Amino acid sequence: MSVSESNGRKLLNAIISSVSGRYVVYAVQLLSLMIMARIFTPEQLGFFAILQVFSIFFMLFSEMGFAPALINKEKLPKNHRDGIYSFTWVMGAVVTLLFALSGPLIAWFYSEPVYQLLILPVAISILFNTACIVPTAALQKDRRFLILARADSISELVSLFAVILIALYFDPLWALSLKALIVSVFRFYQYWLSSSNTAFGKPSFGKELHHFKSLLSFSSYQFGFNILNYFSRNLDTILVGKYMGTASLGVYDQAYKLMRYPLLLLTFAMTPAIQPVLTTLKDNKKEFGRLHNKFALYMAYIGSLIGVLVFFLAEFIVSLMLGKQWSAVVPVIEVLSITIPIQTLLSSSGGFYQAAGRADLLFKCGVFSSITNVSAIAFGIYSESLETLCWMLVASFSINFVQCYWLLSRHLLDGGRSKLVLNLMPIVITVLALSLVKVYVY
């Protein structure tokens, strides 16, 4: 077997392991979505979406891009590992407190005093999610994707059962806010126990917290990208809830979740496998580029097919997954589905930048995409139309796609740029065709 075939086989095996594990998780999450859509109203889910989007923002500050930086390390001495692990607990506690204290500000912004109390269990979940950083990195580096999937599935099922039970006896909003805490606690405990069988080993508390500084040269750019990516991807949720109401947010959030499930099944399931395998090829641009172009071709065809199916089956999908009471989601998801072919590759591009050790280029992509996405969202919110907002996102994702792959081909791929353009043509054709059908036929 040649070196090229060996590298391709390693990547394929890692992707298969990652995908098979994540598919189980997504199946459980989809079941959870279907059940919760029939228990809670769009307004109640809109309330929870607001809490969720702010918790993600605070999580970024506690994570600081450490996980990808840890995966890129060839060795991690015990004292370094334990010092970094202790630091994640400290950071998690600080950010948890800050998020809890932001409750009155969020309540004021949305004119809903109930957020001051609902935010507390969601805030505590940040502590346990942050404590997962080192165990998660250890499991991902060793490609223990099935173990990660098992832990995520169990956590989701336990939280779903708890939410149903709590909703029978207490306010449904409390049930939703407690779900995040239950998931984080069960996930952390399982990750931490399972990490004992990895090369890094199971972390414990250590005194040498200063070792986190060894991660900053990589993680600082990753952290910057995460912050920019957060605002470019979540500002719509924040502003829809503020200016269009929680009911509209509930519709928009459910449409976006349904659109994202194909992406979860495709790129998000594969991305964890990219960095651990291709990190070893970051100095071999020719082989790195060959594997990337092969990956891009497959994903272009698959993403285009999924985009077409979601577009034409939108009404059936919404009825099956959410129920007929969510019919307002249909026109929204039809437009969002046009972005699926684009996001199929755009969402996986970060794994290649990380594998090449070029978080600085990933940060540049984040700066550019944040400008285009924020501009698109601002115009969409001003129009007071969810469909217009979605069309603006189609435009911004298209622009970001061109910029991202121009930067990738220029700096990380050795030759084969013309072949990359040909491999991406199915995406261009599908996006243009679906846009014309939506405008002139539907």
From TrEMBL:
InterPro entries for this protein: Poly_Biosynth_Transport
Family designation: Belongs to the polysaccharide synthase family.
Q: Which organism is it from?
A: Pseudoalteromonas luteoviolacea CPMOR-1
Protein name as it appears in the record = Polysaccharide biosynthesis protein C-terminal domain-containing protein
Query: Keywords of this protein's UniProt record, alphabetized?
Result: Cell membrane, Membrane, Transmembrane, Transmembrane helix
Chief site of localization:
membrane
Pfam families annotated for this entry? Answer: Polysacc_synt_3 (PF13440)
Single GO cellular component annotation?
plasma membrane
Report the membrane topology from the UniProt record. Answer: Multi-pass membrane protein
TM segments?
21-41, 47-71, 83-111, 117-139, 151-170, 176-193, 298-322, 328-349, 361-382, 388-408, 420-441
Localisation per UniProt entry: Cell membrane
